Amino acid sequence: VTLIRHAYVRTDRQRAGIGSTLLDHLLAGTRTPVLIGTWAAARWAIAFYERHGFRVVDEETKDRLLRRYWSIPDRQIETSVVLADERWRRS
E strands within 13-79? Predict the structure, then answer.
């Protein structure tokens, strides 16, 4: 599994294709399923990843994945979401 955690483009540089280019580069460099962790309140980030084919996983799956792959406190688990790519959803 490839993990992406809290990756953002500076606000004054958004909407210029930088995030899409960076994400495409990262995805091209892996053959494994990709999981992305971000804050649940970061609706703009979630929408960005959804436009690129990622989907938010259900709450139970999110908790399991965050505990398995990320080293974060329980409070952060409560306030985070995990998005998965097509490769992960098929596996």
Answer: 34-39, 55-56
Instruction: Delineate the domains of the chain, giving CATH numbers in brackets.
Output: 2-90 (3.40.630.30)
The amino acid sitting at 52 is H
**Collapsed DSSP state (helix, strand, coil) of residue 37:** strand
Provide the whole-model pTM: 0.90
Residue pLDDT tens, the chain, 91 long: 999 987 788 889 989 999 999 999 999 999 999 999 999 999 999 999 999 999 999 999 999 999 999 999 999 999 999 999 999 989 8
Helix (H, G, I), strand (E, B) or coil at 40: coil
Beta bridge partners of 5: 37
